[in-house]
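S1.2 Input.
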Amino acid sequence: MSNKIWAQPPPGSRKPRFTREQIAAAALEIADHEGFEALSMRRIADVLGAGTMTLYYYVRTKDDLLTLMDDALMAEVVGCCTPLPEHWRTAVERISHAMRETFDKHPWALHALEGARIGPNGLGHVEQSLRALEGLSLSLAEKLEMLSVVDDYVFGTVLRDREDHGAQGSTFDADAINEVTKEYLASGDYPILRGLVGDREPVDAFLEFLAVMTDKGRFQRGLEIILDGFAAKYDLPERSSQQLRDAAHAHAQAKPRQAVAPSRPATDREIRTRKRGPPRRSSR
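S1.3 Output.
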């Protein structure tokens, strides 16, 4: 896919009628509401109120258009992560959630924009990701491994989200599924599943399994498990330097003072003893 658009200056020496950002935004709107298949230069021109040939003055090829659209998505991710949290773990979590939310918002993008060349906002995303791990005592290879593993988890979740969303509008014959599944379970080839289903209808059991697998908190729990693994493997700090300073200050403030026994007036005998001094040792 061409990447020449970033090597070209914005069109026109005078103030252009449209910006690349406006064209990309119009393209995203069409793909979101009408489907990626409805996207064309003519349709974008209709949305912008321009002639089709006018747009070719700004975007010369469809590859250039897809590159602009991909960079617009990355702008959403970068914007969600600005400013970036100080602590590595909080920063990685913020970036991961931003990526998932962006691609869930544009579910067609993961496949449709595959192969799009990186642009300035894409570079900004890479910069943010590396900055999140900047203060850690890790090699570049170890940092890239962590980021790629997290990316794989995020995009795998996006694909699952897309499948779940598509399944919501589908219908199935529960009675037929029940009967066929009962026959399979009765064969004895699936003892674990048979034990999990128990005396329930198979469809009811499978819906329960699905609810666990699609629980809203599952993404964060899985992300925590991944980051726990990297933190344990590389002995990474679980709290930022500022958090450690705050905790030390709070500990010092909360440290109990040593109790002092209340004073009492001295007796006459104690006063006389103090005046005479300590008793002398007798000599033999």
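S1.4 Remarks. The domain at 4-170 is CATH 1.10.357.10 (Tetracycline Repressor; domain 2).
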